[in-house]
Structure formats: C-alpha cells, structure tokens
Amino acid sequence: MSVKPQKPTALPESRAARLERLDRTIRAASAQRTLYSGVLASKLGLHQTDLECLFIITLGEKVTPGRLAQETGLTTGAITGVVDRIERAGYIRRVRDTSDRRRLFLEPVAEKIEEIRAINRRAYHAWIRDLARYSEEELDILLDFADRNYEAAVNATIKLRRESRGEEETPKAG
C-alpha cells in the first residue's frame, strides 16, 4: 500500500480536497522521516529515541538533561539512560556549568556530529535543490507554514501527553 497521494485529476480540486491532500502528504513525509530516522539510528548504533534526543541537543544551546526530559516528555530516569548511551557512543559530552557545578550541559562533539551530517548530506542537497525553485515570497510562506506546523505539533504533543497522564488542560491566559 502506498502512502503517496494519488495524482490529481484534470478537474480542479476543491479547497477541502486540496487541504486533505496537503495533510495526507505532510503525514506521509513525517512517517517517511520517522522511518529514515530509525534506519539512521541503527546505522549509528543508537536507539531511535537516542538519535531524536541528539537532534534536540544539537539544535539547542546549553541543553541540560532536565530540559531534554521536559522537551521529550521522557522521565528523568529514562533521559539518564539516553544521555549515557549517546555519550558512550561519543556524540556528546557532559560539561559542568562553571557558575553552578551541580548543573550539567549536554555538549555535542562536533567531529561525531559531522559524521551524521555527512550521511545526511545527499538527502539534504536534494531537499535544498527542491527548495531553490521557490521565490523569496514563496519561501516566506513555506517558513511561516513550517513554523506554525511545528508549533501545532508541539502543542498537540503536550496536550496528548497531559491527557495520557490524566491531567486537566490548564486554561490559557488572555
């Protein structure tokens, strides 16, 4: 069974059909990226969760284990295991905060991160080539969409996590 959307017919699609096709395509791309991440993690000798946590570490600044637990929804105990495995594999090191020796930062090891980037480079270059066809205005729209899509995904994850724990949603101020 293919998750790839069917080619549009010669008749113009309704707005609802186009929105449905966009949603379906985004979900298919997300699923494919998840599968890619699993293959990459296996190639690197990591668990998929470890790799996703490593990505969060490389995208942030001064990421602590506590912040990683908060962003992923994993328990602090689970995060300790994740951080131990990523550190053992050589992708990060724990660095003490010079102003508070009790606090640890998770610092990516540049040479090891470059190994991952080298593996990803082919896919990245194809992605950039595809994006190069868009005008500046279209890129602005895509960036706005990507930002909003990311924010919606984060909020949906937080809400689902709270529901799973039986927590009530806190009303938003404003």
Task: Report the uncertain regions.
Answer: none
Proportion of residues in extended strands: 5-15%
CATH topology of the domain at 16-109: Arc Repressor Mutant, subunit A
Mean pLDDT: 89
Number of helices: 6
Identify the strand order in the major beta sheet. Answer: 1-2
What structural category characterises the helix and strand content?
mainly alpha
Helix/strand order: HHHHEEHH
* Computed Rg: 20 Å
Oligomer: single chain
Mind telling me the CATH class of the domain at 16-109? Mainly Alpha
Q: What is the 3D shape?
A: globular
Query: What is the helix content?
Result: 55-70%
Q: What's the end-to-end separation, in Å?
A: 46 Å
Q: Report the major sheet.
A: 2 strands, antiparallel
* Second rung of CATH, namely the architecture of the domain at 16-109: Orthogonal Bundle
Total number of strands: 2
Superfamily (CATH H level) name of the domain at 16-109? Winged helix-like DNA-binding domain superfamily/Winged helix DNA-binding domain
